[in-house]
């Protein structure tokens, strides 16, 4: 389980929010998209290594016992969020990249830059980066404030 406070990866909301509008420099994009000889990077043992979740804001919901939480999730190429669920709904938007959203109880969903998505309460899912750049997802949750934001499986 991941505590809400453990999501904070920057020194403040302004720094994290600024990341939404910032694109990688062209040299970083090029470095991400290929290796010498056009070969893919070797697979490593931790498929979630390098994934970051930055807490942007959290506020009490109008519904008693619930809270609204917003995060910026970044998933490097060939990485994934890991199977997890939330104690409420997730409403998201793909800021940059290509994701295969995998579910335990339904077919996968291919999402690209500009696509919105919705994940119902308690649904186990995994966001797998299947694109050529680091994926950036803006996720807003309305969750039970007494539960951890993320439960991993």
Distance between the termini: 9 Å
Strand composition percent: 35-45%
Largest sheet: 5 strands, antiparallel
- How big is the Rg? 16 Å
Helix content: 10-25%
Order of helices and strands: HHEEEEEEEEEE
Poorly predicted runs are 5-36
Keyword list:
three-stranded antiparallel beta sheet, 10 strands, 11% helix, single chain, globular, 153 residues, mainly beta
Task: Chart the SSEs and their pairings.
Layout: H1 13-21, H2 26-33, E1 52-60, E2 66-75, E3 84-85, E4 88-96, E5 98-103, E6 109-112, E7 116-119, E8 125-129, E9 135-144, E10 151-152
Antiparallel strand pairs: 1-2, 2-9, 3-10, 4-7, 4-9, 5-6, 5-8
Overview of the molecule:
The chain is mainly beta. Helix content is 11%, strand content 40%. The chain contains 2 helices and 10 strands, in the order ααββββββββββ. The strands form 3 sheets. A 5-stranded antiparallel β-sheet has the order 1-2-9-4-7. The longest helix is centred in the N-terminal third of the chain and has 9 residues, at 13-21. The chain starts with 12 loop residues before the first helix and ends with a strand.
What's this model, at a glance?
With 153 residues, the chain is mainly beta. The protein is 11% helix and 40% strand. The protein is built from 2 helices and 10 strands; from the N terminus they run H-H-E-E-E-E-E-E-E-E-E-E.
